Amino acid sequence: MRYLTPRKAAKGLGAAGPGSATAHHWSMTVSSVALMILTPAFIFVIANAIGLPHEGVVAYFSRPYPAIVTALFLIVGLLHYINGTQIMIDDYLGHTERKVAVIAAQLLGWAVIAAAVYALVRMALSPAVAPVLAPVTAVVVQ
């Protein structure tokens, strides 16, 4: 028979253990700091893309800097959303509703991440788009 002291049995399972509120807090803190850095860069990227025609937007986001900044901003922001909604749901909902709401929030977050990354990759790998030219009208000189 093995004797376990209460401390030995509880080691690693306390308030600071894995999967605890402390882990969520650190995850939220790290993603908040990352978003503080990425948000101005993302605003700069989007401000330069405003007003461009479709071909210009595709060409702009096929460049590495705008695509990487946008992808990082969306991924980090949505992971922050997923962790934040899980904390909020854990605080305010009961057992069955909690499970359904956490699953729905996580599915929504991961679906938006997948759609955004797919769109960025598709723009980055699209063939060079020729600018649309206005039709030329023939001028007949008499």
TrEMBL record:
<feature type="transmembrane region" description="Helical">
    <location>
        <begin position="102"/>
        <end position="121"/>
    </location>
</feature>
<dbReference type="Pfam" id="PF01127">
    <property type="entry name" value="Sdh_cyt"/>
</dbReference>
<keyword id="KW-0408">Iron</keyword>
<feature type="transmembrane region" description="Helical">
    <location>
        <begin position="64"/>
        <end position="82"/>
    </location>
</feature>
<keyword id="KW-1133">Transmembrane helix</keyword>
<dbReference type="InterPro" id="IPR034804">
    <property type="entry name" value="SQR/QFR_C/D"/>
</dbReference>
<keyword id="KW-0349">Heme</keyword>
<keyword id="KW-0472">Membrane</keyword>
<dbReference type="InterPro" id="IPR000701">
    <property type="entry name" value="SuccDH_FuR_B_TM-su"/>
</dbReference>
<feature type="region of interest" description="Disordered">
    <location>
        <begin position="1"/>
        <end position="22"/>
    </location>
</feature>
<dbReference type="GO" id="GO:0016020">
    <property type="term" value="C:membrane"/>
</dbReference>
<feature type="transmembrane region" description="Helical">
    <location>
        <begin position="33"/>
        <end position="52"/>
    </location>
</feature>
<comment type="function">
    <text>Membrane-anchoring subunit of succinate dehydrogenase (SDH).</text>
</comment>
<keyword id="KW-0479">Metal-binding</keyword>
<protein>
    <submittedName>
        <fullName>Succinate dehydrogenase</fullName>
    </submittedName>
</protein>
<keyword id="KW-0812">Transmembrane</keyword>
<dbReference type="GO" id="GO:0046872">
    <property type="term" value="F:metal ion binding"/>
</dbReference>
